[in-house]
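> example.struct
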């Protein structure tokens, strides 16, 4: 007979004959007794919009003989009744390593370990900066106890991730029940995604689900730059895998080529293109409504009721319009409430980043705390009380018309879907603005 269990990369089958289990127990006890029985390694988790490391997944390595995969060690430990102690030791070793500022560490725990007193005692009381990944390989026998344990972990500051999402029905059920903070997409869905429309559709569905529920999506096992670029275009927020960096001793950096691919994918999404591109997702109801309203606009007053709709389409807190004065090379603000020019003028020469994006017809996003951004832009953003802004040039009939500005009070990077939507909206509104007398 065999038993199945794992914490790590996959499933492992373990013979359950009594003599074999005794030998396993002796081997696992030796690991538990040794201060160097488990060595933690860390794999970077990267934000695809920026190419920057935001966290690390801690993985266990066993330096002693026999040389075997980590999931085999954990499966053997569970088979002989020492699974929870071994997981506790692995977590304790991982969390003992101070992590780089501004990053989190993610640790793997089986469902039984999450409810184990021994494992919980190995965790610090303050779990801020810690993500607990619930592995799918082990069956859950007591869902209520698991859910109660997750509530307690969240109360201590931890965030929860569901590992290997998409690899089985049990994981989808758990995803719905736990309302996790992160979904980790299994390698089986990631491999070859750039040439597989079925996988693209499945990942799009997971991304839409995550957007609706406020959940972060992380792709595991990314091994090629083609996969990485496609995942970025699908608005997958985070990724890890050999294409970025292998699990190593702390603290490994990501491959420069992978960082460049992330930045390049974001840059490409913001560039102006004349050719038609297939949409990543269907147009939503807001865009359809807007398309029906704008052709009938004949005055600024007709535009006023659309302010809330324009903000809602991108989840923004505020929307501003500026008209372009070609002779003065300025952007003149249009008051949002009444859509009248306020007289406030901004010389493009004073805002070189905006000027460059405006002339290249590129979308520009600015974060108030971005030290690498245009200082004039960030200063103005802070003075207005916002933390991020998306600037979208408006052109009509081959000429610049103005600028549409979406402001947010929270620090956010706009998604690919939002960038596409902003371009569509700006294109439609620019035709209307071009035909109106803004100073009437």
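> example.seq
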């Amino acid at each position: 007979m065999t038993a199945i269990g794992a914490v790590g990369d996959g499933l492992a089958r373990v013979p359950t004959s009594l003599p074999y289990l005794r030998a396993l127990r002796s081997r696992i006890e030796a690991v538990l007794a040794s201060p160097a029985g488990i060595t933690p390694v860390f794999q970077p988790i990267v934000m695809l919009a920026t190419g920057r490391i935001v966290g690390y997944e801690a993985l266990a390595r066993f330096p002693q003989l026999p040389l075997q995969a980590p999931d085999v060690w954990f499966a053997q430990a569970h088979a002989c009744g020492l699974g929870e102690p071994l997981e506790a030791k692995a977590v304790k070793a991982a969390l003992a390593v101070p992590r780089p500022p501004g990053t989190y560490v993610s640790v793997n725990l089986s469902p039984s370990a999450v409810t184990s007193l021994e494992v919980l005692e190995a965790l610090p009381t303050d779990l801020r900066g810690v993500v607990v990944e619930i592995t799918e390989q082990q069956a859950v026998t007591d869902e209520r106890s698991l859910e109660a344990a997750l509530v307690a972990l969240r109360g201590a500051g931890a965030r929860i991730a569901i590992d290997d999402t998409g690899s089985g029905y049990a994981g989808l059920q758990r995803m719905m029940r736990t309302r996790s903070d992160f979904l980790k997409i299994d390698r089986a869905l990631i491999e070859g995604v750039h040439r597989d429309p079925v996988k693209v559709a499945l990942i799009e569905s997971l991304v839409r689900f995550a957007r609706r529920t406020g959940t972060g999506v992380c792709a595991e096992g990314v091994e090629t730059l083609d996969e990485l670029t496609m995942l970025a275009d699908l608005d997958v927020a985070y990724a890890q895998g050999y294409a970025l960096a292998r699990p190593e001793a702390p603290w490994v950096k990501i491959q420069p080529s992978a960082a460049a691919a992330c930045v390049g994918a974001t840059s490409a999404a913001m560039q102006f293109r004349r050719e038609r591109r297939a949409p990543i997702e269907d147009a939503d109801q807001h865009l359809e409504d807007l398309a029906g309203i704008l052709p009938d606009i004949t005055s600024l007053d007709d535009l006023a009721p659309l302010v809330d709709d324009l903000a809602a389409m991108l989840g923004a807190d505020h929307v501003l319009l500026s008209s372009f004065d070609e002779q003065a090379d300025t952007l003149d603000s249009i008051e949002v409430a009444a859509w009248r020019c306020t007289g406030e003028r901004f010389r493009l020469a004073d805002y070189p980043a905006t000027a460059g994006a405006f002339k290249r017809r590129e979308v520009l996003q600015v974060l108030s705390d971005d030290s690498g951004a245009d200082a004039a832009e960030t200063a103005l953003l802070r003075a207005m009380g916002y933390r991020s802004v998306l600037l979208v040039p408006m052109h009509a009939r081959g000429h610049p018309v103005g600028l549409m500005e979406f402001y947010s009070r929270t620090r956010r990077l706009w998604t690919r879907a939002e960038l596409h939507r902003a371009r569509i909206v700006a294109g439609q509104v620019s035709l209307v603005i071009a035909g109106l007398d803004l100073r009437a």
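> remarks
The two ends are 85 Å apart (CA to CA).
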